[in-house]
């Protein structure tokens, strides 16, 4: 069965850095359940081979397990945790980074009626579905190439195209399709998301973001909330706090300076929001990051 072979391939070829010899293809292996942790999702197709994972985006929660896949169509701040993972049964998964240009090329080649009818509105930035047999089979054939390096350059691009096509013609066609359309509402929101990520420590006006997206303020706010499940200001706050945590790991004694670096003028507000996000004040969390507790045997 495809899922059994997928587990075997993931187990055999997983590396600590998740990379593989195939461009844009990642393999993850986690041998213990994890507490909720913030991260950036990336634009990715993730297929679970074993175990399960829960991801929160704003007020939405997604859970997916073996034989299911998740689509993240925009790089967003999420909170994730592995629910079923142990040394005997590690959580295993495959990720394929989504490139808009590759999706756009497939859309141009699709004939009339080849794709499902597009639903109205802007799709969420995250979506979960059961993986059909054809998709699992293509993912397995892609990972087999790791053991046949001379075939990677020629065959990997073809199989990746097949995987994208299976997703484009499946249940989660809408978010992937919008990712490949230059003038889609998802693409316009993604442009703003990239701006916020690059300027997370700067104040902004929602009116200016709406102009960047080419939308009215009301349409922009509605579409942004539809994709990210949060407001632009809340989205910026999550980026700021994640960046602050990275900085504190290197500068644990400079809580005030880190707060200012990421855009907080008020140390008390920074400490309060940091505590709410990570469950501990900045100084305590910095010590925990720097000197983690030893793992249980």
From TrEMBL:
Coiled coil: none annotated. GO terms for molecular function: DNA-binding transcription factor activity; sequence-specific DNA binding. Residues 258-297 are annotated as: Disordered. InterPro entries: Homeodomain-like_sf, HTH_AraC, Tscrpt_reg_HTH_AraC_N. Keywords: Transcription, Transcription regulation. The keyword tRNA processing does not apply. Residues 287-297 have a biased composition (Basic and acidic residues). Residues 190-288 form the HTH araC/xylS-type domain. It comes from the Bacteria. This is AraC family transcriptional regulator. The lineage of its organism: Bacteria, Bacillati, Actinomycetota, Actinomycetes, Micromonosporales.
